[in-house]
């Protein structure tokens, strides 16, 4: 790759040397920073049947434009919001600092987002690429309180590298082409992962509902969304094969019961289940006193947990071995005292017919939930114990192979994203010279 003729120190660690004819400035000299706001939520007149996009942090979409938002503002809501022009750069200033996005339309945001509205010295798309490589700077300038905060004043004073406008255009043209190619490769890889997920689901559904013998005679299960099962199998209800336990209301807990790691037990939440597989990547801990207060919901290996409340209702997992002392939060229930092979029952809970049961029986439009009594009445399929073990062993082998392939594809995506990020940083700070013929 070409280099510029000469460089000078920027004086900023995360930027390094820059081309000698480029300017180092700060955001407030090339843009306005506008913090969003929230129209009163008690008045539906600000929101009901609105059409104006109102962006929250979880809707920031990086280099891809924001096309839709969960809530929209009416004219009344828009009039009392801080309306941003198209192509404003939106930066999360609370919590997950540095996540960003933009919209090709005029939008408003809530108060967690600081918008950067560039002046004529910065081409909007160049500004977007510049922000894309500034996460380290945003994090360094955030106030490190319980929830990190990047306020407007601190953001305005963060350094910004300013090439001449013609070079900004060349940089944008180059990065548009390169990132499009990288994004195409990422999309193809994501499609492979989606196909692996579909294959996993199909293998589980076939083995759990039909068994491993393709020639076995079948009979009607009597449950519409299960269909036919081997004629020598039986059906039952969860209450016949397991005991279900949840956190009793008066034994709930508050933020005062949350403790640091090492001072209490893990309290499992829906975030500890990803694609029906248990993980401890991020944990919350409650005091030992609260943990021992409810012994019936202490969680042990081979227990099965189900999400019964919230947007991820129906997620499920089996608890692996070598886990710390754990309990569940109020959004989950745990199945214990199992009369079926634990792995086989777990695989059943991941099947379409169990997911369908959750969908049919849940209540609540804002926060979906389902009672323990209804879960108790979910249908289950009961083969012989030998067949349960055969099916579990078969699925363990098949799904381990799929898991290995999935991890390989995930690694490809991570490396592509790392390369894209490094390329943007190198080009925006002038480490690589971009010309029209590159």
Sum up the structure in keywords.
438 residues, alpha+beta, Adenine-n6-DNA-methyltransferase TaqI, Chain A, domain 2, Helix Hairpins, four-stranded antiparallel sheet, 12 helices, 35% helix, 20% strand, elongated
SSE topology:
Blueprint (H helix, E strand, L loop, with lengths): L6 E3 L7 E3 L3 E4 H4 E5 L16 E4 L15 E3 L1 H5 L9 E4 L7 E3 L5 E2 L3 E6 L5 H9 L2 H6 L11 H5 L2 E4 L2 H46 L7 E3 L7 E3 L3 E4 H4 L1 E4 L11 E2 L4 E5 L4 E2 L2 E2 L6 E3 H6 L10 E4 L8 E3 L7 E3 L3 E5 L5 H8 L2 H10 L10 H5 L2 E4 L2 H44 L10
Parallel strand pairs: 5-9, 17-23
Antiparallel strand pairs: 1-2, 3-11, 4-10, 5-6, 7-8, 7-10, 12-13, 14-25, 15-24, 16-20, 17-20, 18-19, 21-22, 21-24
Helix pairs in contact: 3-12, 6-12
Tally of distinct domains: 3
Structural class: alpha+beta
The number of helical runs is 12
Which CATH class of the largest domain is shown?
A: Alpha Beta
CATH architecture term of the largest domain: Alpha-Beta Complex
Structure notes:
The structure is a single chain. The chain has 438 residues and is α+β, with helices and mostly antiparallel strands. The protein folds into three domains: 23-162, Alpha-Beta Complex (Adenine-n6-DNA-methyltransferase TaqI, Chain A, domain 2), CATH 3.90.220.20; 165-216 and 384-438, Orthogonal Bundle (Helix Hairpins); 234-382, Adenine-n6-DNA-methyltransferase TaqI, Chain A, domain 2, CATH 3.90.220. 35% of the residues lie in helices and 20% in strands. It is built from twelve helices and 25 strands. It has a four-stranded antiparallel sheet with strand order 4-10-7-8. A hairpin with a 7-residue loop joins strand 12 and strand 13 (228-230). Helix 3 crosses helix 12 (385-428) and helix 6 (165-210) packs antiparallel against helix 12 (385-428). The chain is elongated and about 80 Å long.
């Amino acid at each position: 790759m070409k280099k510029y003729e000469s460089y000078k120190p920027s004086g900023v660690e995360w930027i390094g040397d820059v081309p000698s004819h480029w300017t180092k400035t700060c955001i407030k000299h090339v843009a306005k920073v506008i913090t969003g706001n929230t129209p009163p939520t008690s008045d539906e007149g600000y929101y009901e049947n609105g059409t104006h996009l109102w962006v929250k942090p979880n809707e920031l979409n990086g280099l891809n434009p924001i096309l839709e938002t969960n809530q929209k503002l009416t004219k009344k809501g828009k009039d009392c919001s801080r309306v941003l022009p198209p192509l404003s750069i939106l930066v999360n200033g609370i919590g997950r600092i540095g996540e960003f996005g933009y919209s090709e339309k005029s939008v408003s945001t809530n108060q967690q987002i600081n918008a950067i509205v560039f002046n004529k010295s910065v081409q909007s798309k160049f500004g977007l690429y510049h922000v894309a490589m500034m996460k380290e700077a945003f994090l360094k300038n955030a106030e490190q309180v319980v929830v990190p905060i990047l306020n407007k004043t601190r953001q305005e004073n963060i350094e910004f590298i300013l090439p001449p406008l013609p070079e900004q255009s060349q940089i944008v043209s180059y990065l548009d082409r390169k990132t499009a190619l990288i994004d195409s490769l990422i999309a193809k890889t994501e499609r492979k992962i989606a196909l692996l997920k579909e294959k996993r689901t199909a293998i589980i559904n076939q083995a759990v509902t039909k068994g491993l013998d393709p020639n076995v005679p079948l009979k009607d299960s009597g449950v519409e969304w299960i269909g036919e099962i081997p004629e020598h199998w039986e059906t039952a209800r969860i209450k016949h094969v397991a005991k279900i336990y949840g956190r009793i209301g008066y034994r709930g807990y508050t933020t005062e019961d949350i403790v640091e790691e090492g001072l209490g037990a893990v309290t499992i939440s829906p975030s500890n289940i990803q694609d029906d597989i248990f993980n401890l990547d991020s944990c919350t801990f409650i005091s030992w006193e609260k943990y021992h207060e409810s012994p019936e919901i202490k969680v042990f290996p081979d227990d099965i947990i189900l999400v019964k409340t919230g947007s991820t209702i129906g997620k499920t997992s089996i608890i692996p071995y070598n886990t710390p002392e754990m309990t569940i939060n109020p959004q989950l229930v745990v199945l214990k005292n199992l009369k079926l092979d634990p792995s086989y029952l777990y695989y059943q809970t991941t099947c379409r017919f169990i997911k369908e049961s959750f969908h049919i029986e849940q209540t609540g439009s804002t926060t979906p939930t389902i009672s323990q009594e209804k879960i108790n009445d979910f249908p289950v399929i009961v083969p012989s114990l030998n067949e349960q073990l055969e099916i579990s062993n078969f699925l363990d082998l098949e799904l381990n192979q799929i898991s290995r392939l999935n991890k390989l594809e995930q690694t490809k995506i991570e490396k592509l994203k790392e390369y894209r990020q490094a390329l943007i940083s190198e080009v925006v700070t002038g480490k690589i010279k971009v010309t029209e013929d590159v």
